[in-house]
Please model this.
Amino acid sequence: MATLIITEKKKAAEAIANALGTTTTVKITKSLNIYVISSKNLYVIPLRGHILEYRNTDIYKSWTNPPPREILTNSNSIKKFQISGLGPYIKVVKEYGKICNHCIIATDADIEGCTIGLFDALPFVRQVNPNIKVSQLWLSSLQKDEIINKFNNLIIPKYSWGESGEARAIIDAIIGFSATREVTNTLRPLLNKFRVRFTSIGRVQTSLLYLIYLRDQEILNFIPKPYFLIDADLIHTNVVFKAHHHLNPFNKDQEVKARQIFQKIRNEKIGKIIDNSKKVIRRSPPTPLNTSKALVLLTKNLRISANLAMRTMNALYLNQIISYPRTDSDVYKLDFKHKEIIQKFTLHPHFKNYALNLLKNKRVNPTKGKKDMGDHPPITPLESLDINSSRFENSLQKRVYDLLARHYLALFGEDAQESKQFLKILIKDEQFNAQFVSLISSGFLEIAPFLKPKYEEEIQIIGDKIPIKEILFIKKETQPPPRYTDTSLLKLMEKNHLGTKSTRPVIIKLLQTRELTERIQYHYHITNLGKFIIENLIEIWLPFLKPDFTKKVEGKLEEIKNKKKNIKEVVDEIRMEFLQLFDKFLINKHKLVSKINNYKIDYTIPLTSSNCPFCNKNPMKFINIKNKRFLVCSDDNCKQFLSLPKNGKLQLLDSICSICNFNIFKITLMKYKKPYTYYLCPKCWNEDRSNFCSNCKEFKIYKGQCTKK
Model:
């Protein structure tokens, strides 16, 4: 009898089939092929991710009747339905399931993959073949040796992992469907003013939006506090460096004292060195990358979104370049074949010498992280590829691979050695301190320069006197906390147990898609719509907004995965707990309704960094209202404005126009079904609508900066 292998994606099916023998392709539809290995009587069928999804049953299709609360109280309110257009996939799963006596689930080796394989696809196989044997192919890479090895060592299906994913889908469906409808129906009059049909509510996304809102309010309500610094510019062999008064910073109450010290020493020209000590510090190599750490590494260094970073790693995995990118582990098993991988890098044009040195010094044991979760090894480059290799599909894949490969090789490197130099200087009887950290030996930093801190030159001082160029009295103000980036949002979500390693990038992107947040210059801003929703929910539904509820759900899902609880038990517990929260909303929603008529929408979003070109006193506000977009001076007395293009996503760049010194905008839109990007300075463009940056005769936009041609 034959064996059926079900994979999650087409590329995975191709890799598995080609590894197991000579393959014949059977074309079913334009996008669906079956891969047949006749010599082993194997049929490999790819899916396209989920083929089923939870939706409301017919009686609950209306958003008003029956009331949304019944979605929580009636277990028949939701049901799994076939995703539109995926009928051919279900048909072939059944067709080949009939003629096979063994079904191997080879979907992605994580909770989501187990759910797709064991709870979406397998039930269709069992419909036509109830007694079929079921195994699981648990792959950490799509390389031939790995596939053959794991095919010869199939495992018992991880049903509890699939159950955990299935419970998540049910919980998120009943919470999302009921809450989205009830909140949307309540806030409908104002949502109409925002020109949106509904507002999306979910236990993870709404908690994250709440945390972004809190940071937004923290910035908005921040009151700067003055503080004072006394610094000295010192001269050493034509190099000027700073030393800082040992009592820095002085707060407002200490201003008089600070000014007295400054007046006492302001005209001094020589400082006396009373201490010049050094300390050698060893900087250890990094630890292996699990998904969370990899996403932080990529978003921080490449300034890309978390969602794009995850998609790019997944593409590298499907192209058999890296190991499986969804892993909680940052510890390698003792039998992992690092030496073979390092050996491959001895042929790399740039990493060759480093890899050879590792082998020469027998440095083939990596550093260790904190967790071996038993799911997959940490993210590992499996091939040594030159940056110009044709196996990369785009430039971003090259950059992501380069970082991952360098980070992996750094695990085996020697410690970097740093010299920390401390200087204590007396100016009259006032002590000043200076500190320098310089690099003695690079160690692992040679291959991973992106992990380097900022180093300085060591100061070689002879004698105990040093000339003073100037004593400075500086007044500053405390700054508000920064807005979140992809990197800091990922850390925030992990800290608050929001989502999983795989879903966090998707949730961040979802808030953008729903127009609840906006990503401007790598930072996330809450939109007026997002602010409106949270401000209206915060008074009556705070227990749902806070991350504690979602943290509790994640803990219960983990109990299913670890076989401590079953699906029904957990779903019923969460259903009842959320029902109490839902009723709290119903009891208090009249408070929201009473506010709606008096609510005024602020259509402005962040200010320009350049001042208004008309009054040159204040920045301009970005207005988006009734399909019109323009900049208006933030000073109501000025009232001048600059029009902006109606179409495309606008992004304010750090750069300013070299001609008029106003901000430059990047505009991205679809043109002939492909993304198209152009740049303009609103001031130049308003003077002449043909004045795009691409038409400028003197300057060009290079790496986001306006530079001379």
